Amino acid sequence: MLAVLLFNAVDFSVVDNTGDSAGGRRFRKEIGDVNYTTKSLRAATAFTWRLFQQANKPSDRRSTPKISMVMENGDGVAYSSQGEIHFNAGYLLGVLGDVRREFTGVVYHKVVHSWQWNGAGQAPSGLVEEIADYVRMKEGYAASHWVGPGQGDRWVGPGL
């Protein structure tokens, strides 16, 4: 019950600023509306808390009263800062295969950054990114371009 009350204390919001762009149209057609994105933010938060063993330990959790996502037309894939995620809808145009799965994987990765500690900015960026990738993979949203078990030539990403 405590986890539910704490979970409800987090404000989740999504804004679609993509207008009639091709990426915005693909977002709305293949991923859904902002309701799916809000559900994904909530699910990613709950999963991250469980994986980090913080579901019932708010004192161990980074204080993040609000997680918001802004769908926009920009560069790259997505970036996040202080609980605000900016997702470039244009990225979706280059996704082959299941665009909803890839979108959800990126959402999980970015939500992790809202909850993870980073040593007051002193943790190696590669470590921070690999932890977010691990959470994404653990929930079953590994990116299609990631190598499978027994493949590849290193244990961790290039940042470490």
Automatic annotation (TrEMBL):
<dbReference type="InterPro" id="IPR007541">
    <property type="entry name" value="Uncharacterised_BSP"/>
</dbReference>
<dbReference type="Pfam" id="PF04450">
    <property type="entry name" value="BSP"/>
</dbReference>
<protein>
    <submittedName>
        <fullName>Uncharacterized protein</fullName>
    </submittedName>
</protein>
